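Exercise 3.2. Students should predict the tertiary structure of the chain below and write it as structure tokens, then compare their answer with the key that follows.

Predict this chain's 3D structure.
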Amino acid sequence: MGYNVAIDGPAGAGKSTIAKLVAKEKGYIYVDTGAMYRALAIHFLKKNIAPENTDAVIDACGDAEVSIRYEDGAQQVYLNGENVTSMLRTEEVGNMASKTSAIPQVREKLLELQRTLARENDVIMDGRDIGTNILPDADVKIFLTASVETRAKRRYDELTGKGEACDLEQIAKDIADRDARDMNRETAPLKQAEDAILVDSSHMTIPEVVSEICSHCR
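Answer key:
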């Protein structure tokens, strides 16, 4: 049985960055559930499916195969045999993933793969409902958050650093809208598990957050 660490929290809280660093520090396998949903989102976008067309989204799940592999120590995400890792972080993919991940059949598609990884390995997994739904018996549960303003500024800096034109106010609005969707959806909404440790990173450095989470892990 694997040792499992669950990190939940809203969009832009730095879950993936922190989880990867904790995994490296502790020797766990990092499972990026958000990347798996984003891979499915790429599949839906390639088929020109609108996220509101639930029946088409469900049908499209049937011919999508998402897998995670580690190559040279880095996680690579594959969709139907194609490495889509470089396409995962666009706003278009993120918004599609946020909308379609509320569909129960989309979640079921990925749930068993995630649980199998956790059963067989020491893993750290991040997402919206890891501690509440996917790994309810995780050894350590963290709820990582930050203010909307902090998360928007981080995203703005990330995008402008890549030379992409963007608007800080629009990013903040998108994040607030995504929070509302994630917290109010019917299936597996974003919420802090009762036994999760709250970590607010608004005024913390990345090393401080990593150190805080590592202190709770074996």
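Discussion points: The longest strand covers residues 66-71. The beta strands are 4-8, 29-32, 66-71, 74-79, 82-83, 123-127, 140-145, 197-200.
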